[in-house]
Amino acid sequence: MGSVLKHFETKSIKKKTKILEAGTTAKEVYFILNGCIRLFYNKDGEDISAYFFTEKMFAGAYDSFISQKPSRHSIETLEDCEVLAISYKALQELFIEFPKMNEFVRKVLEERFVSLHELFTSQILDSPEERYLNLLKERPDIIQRIPQHQIATFLGITPVSLSRIRKRVTKK
How far apart are CA 71 and CA 53, in angstroms? Predict the structure, then answer.
């Protein structure tokens, strides 16, 4: 495993650091050892959270990273983070040196695809309260770690609506 790790660079990234700005191309993807990273869009001056990455997850703008085209979203650290970063070039070298890594990366991307598809489906079919309850069930740590206004935009609701939902859920 040690020779696989030579393709990664260990990085400490301070809280509230933008590691990718919309309009720029993703140069790296990250495996989070410690911390929390947010992927978000800016629409008409408002930040809309799209995904939260935490420990033992790969984080990044995969679409931009793989296509090497500018990203439409930004990525920032919400906490101090320790990550293993890999560049596009290093990933290609890793695939050549360790062909089995292709299978591993495919599995990671398949898991992410399923997760994003469930999120997409939930935005269409579930009520805001159902989305909140699902978040509580699937990723309870997120509720404690992330500012409420960011959770609200992630759920597609206002912070006031989130507050009402939380009160109802607490009473049940």
Answer: 17
